[in-house]
Amino acid sequence: MKQYLEVGKINNTHGIKGEMKLQLWCDGIEYLRQFNVLYYDAEGKKPVKLLSVRPQKDIAIIKLEGVNSIDDAEKLKGCLLYGNRDDAKLEDGANYIADLIGCYVVDIDTEEEYGRVTDVVNYGSCDIYDVECGGKHFLIPAIEDVVKEINTEYQVIKIKKMKGLFNED
After folding, report:
1. CA Rg, the chain, in Å?
2. In 3D, which of 102, 52, 55, 48 has the Cα closest to residue 79?
3. Is 126 left (phi over 0), alpha (psi -120 to 50) or beta?
4. What is the number of other CB atoms lying within 10 angstroms of the CB of residue 103?
5. pLDDT tens sequence across 135-154
6. What is the pTM of this model?
7. Read out DSSP for the chain?
8. Which residues contact 37 (CB under 8 A, 6 or more apart)?
9. What was the pLDDT predicted at 168?
10. Distance between CA 49 and CA 100 in Å, rounded?
11. Buried b / exposed e across 152-166, counting CB within 10 Å, b at 16+?
12. Cα distance between residue 121 and residue 141, in whole Å
């Protein structure tokens, strides 16, 4: 499991005092507020103190230590920021997308393997697992009627197969 997970991408400056616009790649502002320190790298070797976070539409306005001018902020445009998974708490039953990718999807009743999760997308109503098997991709809705058990430690997602899920006749 990755220890440092992407929380967002700096996509622009905000004002002249070093604030920046962060495109959120995490669950939202409240999740981001759990962090006192973020990282400029995926290995956790370049920490930076997170001084403030506030919402603006669907992004976050952030202030990082040492970024005190628009010129400082301009240099960070396009930069990804990472959070240490140990510094934040997930809601019960929630999983990091990074932990779901690579999981095997198996039938809860027959143990038949359907493939591995290659991506997780969300178009509004629920997460959808993109599962690849033998070059074919299947989209599995992450709803209670289908996803019955998730064990990221063993990289297994157990599902209850529904008619039409795998384009069978």
Report:
1. 19
2. 48
3. beta
4. 20
5. 999 999 999 999 999 999 99
6. 0.80
7. --SEEEEEEEEEEETTTTEEEEEE-SS-HHHHTT-SEEESSTTS-SEEEEEEEEEETTEEEEEETT--SHHHHHTTTT-EEEEEGGGS-PPTT---HHHHTT-EEEETTT--EEEEEEEEEE-SSSEEEEEEETTEEEEEE-STTTEEEEETTTTEEEE---TTTT---
8. 47, 48, 49, 50, 84, 87
9. 56
10. 29
11. beebebbbebeeebe
12. 10
103: tokens are 């999981």
Among residues 164, 141, 150, 156, which one has the least CA distance to residue 106? 156
**According to the 3-state scheme, what is the secondary structure of 108-131?**
CCCCCEEEEEEEEEECCCCEEEEE
**Of residues 73, 87, 69, 55, the one with CA closest to residue 10:** 73
In whole angstroms, what is the distance from residue 13 CA to residue 66 CA? 14
Token reading at 75: 């240099």
Mean per-residue pLDDT for 113-119? 95
Q: How many CB atoms lie within 10 A of CB 64?
A: 24
Percentage of the chain modeled with pLDDT above 70: 98
For strand 113-122 and strand 127-133, is the pairing parallel, antiparallel, or unpaired? antiparallel
Six-digit token string for 150: 């998730």
